[in-house]
Specification:
alpha+beta, five-stranded mixed β-sheet, 15 helices, 17 strands, binds adenosine monophosphate
């Protein structure tokens, strides 16, 4: 018989893994709601054109794109910002501004799978549409950082850059404008070797090359802003913007963000502030979040609207929590009923029903196991309490409730079980 394996780059999730994922997911959702963002959902697949329009033909190599039976070009979404902006242009553009939305969904990329890099993975993200102000950028960064605070991921590095400054540097280097996109992509990938080659091939003055390379490797606090400002002609607004951004973030209680002039995000639609968050514990695939301000609506046929947003790689957040040994409570059930002997089974099922009707999670031995085996099973599914239903106790309308942590046992009247388990 054929043995089936899951497709490369995909994963199955056990009940335990799903329980921890849902726990973290719920915290992220709650945080976004606390910030006034509402959840949206878009289709898993879109017309391929949407993504090509946004990122150019090269994205086709990285996507699951195909023709459906009607001959339409369809792609599984590789991210959710473009679908959300399409949704915005189609249906939401007339809503009062700003529009604050968040999403959680699976995305697909045809990549070389490795640890922390999958072909199907999950993104949690937010978009703040229609408020062209520094406060929107701050709100978005603060939401991302609050999400991480809520899930107790403390070991992170936040790097904030500004594409306006990178553009000034590129202008100064006199690189042809049509090569900015590819240049930003190399900077984003930290592919310095190919970047140097591109600059040399295009006759960029070696001194200018050195300035560019040294600026994109600079990271630090406010002092770095001043240092780079002395190295670049122009870009004053962007430098002031970055400095103000840092000040405003402290009002949200977030200090210690790093300025990094090498954050390029590699996508042509970002316009100003860009940021990334890393989990240093993750090694090569350490980037857990990327975001920035962008303008996409115009590209999709809408009116120009300033937007800012981010996307977490949810799977990497989970990996980082595990690496940093952040404890996540695992969900078990409240009560497991063990009928002792056939004659007690009917009453046991009545107890089961009453507990469930009272909103208490409860399960029962369906295997007719002996007590010791049934207890071992109850332990394996992380039960708080076991209800032993024995003939002798039933004569007095009672059962024995055993606490699985302490091993303490108590006799409880059948009518009081639900109440007993609620406390
Ligand atoms: P991006 O849309 O490329 O900015 O990605 C946003 C986030 O998704 C990144 O910061 C990563 O954490 C995560 N990510 C990107 N690609 C993958 C992948 N192949 N597998 C898992 N997570 C990914």
């Amino acid at each position: 018989m054929a043995e089936f394996q899951r497709p490369r780059g995909t994963r199955d999730f056990t009940p335990e893994a799903m329980s921890t994922r849902r726990f973290i997911e719920a915290k992220l959702r709650k945080c976004a709601e606390r910030f006034g963002f509402g959840e949206v959902m878009t289709p898993t697949f879109e017309n391929t054109e949407l993504f090509v329009e946004r990122s150019g033909e090269t994205i086709l190599d990285d996507m699951y794109a195909f023709q459906d039976k009607g001959g339409r070009d369809i792609a599984l979404r590789p991210e959710l910002t473009a679908p959300i902006m399409r949704f915005y242009v189609n249906e939401l553009a007339s809503r009062p501004k700003p529009l604050k939305v968040f999403y959680f969904g699976n995305v697909f990329r045809y990549e070389r799978p490795q640890s922390g890099r999958y072909r199907e993975f999950f993104q949690f993200g937010a978009e703040l549409i229609g408020a062209p102000s520094i406060e929107s950028d701050v709100e978005i960064i603060a939401l991302a950082l609050s999400c991480l605070k809520d899930v107790s991921l403390e070991n992170i590095e936040v790097r904030i850059g500004h594409l306006g400054i990178l553009e000034c540097i590129l202008e100064e280097s006199q690189l042809p404008k049509n090569l900015y996109g590819i240049c930003l992509r190399y900077i984003d990938k930290q592919d310095i070797k190919t970047l140097k080659l591109l600059l040399s091939e295009n006759g960029i003055d070696p001194e200018k090359q050195d300035t560019l390379l040294s600026i994109i490797s600079m990271k630090g606090g406010r002092d770095v802003i001043s240092t780079v400002q002395t190295m670049v002609e122009g870009g004053d607004d962007a430098f002031v913007y970055l400095a103000n951004l840092l000040t405003k973030l402290t009002k949200y209680g977030f200090e210690g963000c790093t300025v990094d002039f090498g954050v390029a995000r590699g996508l042509d639609y970002y316009t100003g502030m860009v940021f990334e968050i890393d989990s240093p514990s993750l090694g090569a695939e350490k980037q857990i979040c990327g975001g920035g301000s962008y303008n996409l609506a115009e590209l999709f046929g809408g009116e120009e609207v300033n937007s800012t947003g981010f996307a977490f790689g949810f799977d990497r957040v989970m990996l980082a929590l595990e690496k940093d040994s952040v404890e996540i409570p695992t969900k078990g059930i409240r009560a497991y009923i063990i009928p002792i002997g056939q004659s007690t089974r009917p009453t046991s099922f009545e107890i089961l029903r009453t507990l469930r009707e009272n909103g208490i999670s409860a399960d029962i031995d369906l295997m007719g196991r002996k007590i010791s085996k049934a207890l071992a099973y109850a332990n394996s599914i992380k039960t708080d309490k076991v209800i032993l239903v024995g003939e002798k106790e039933l004569v007095n309308d009672s059962v024995t409730i055993r606490d699985m942590d302490s091993g303490d046992q108590q006799t409880v009247n059948i009518n009081d079980i639900a109440e007993h388990l609620k406390t």
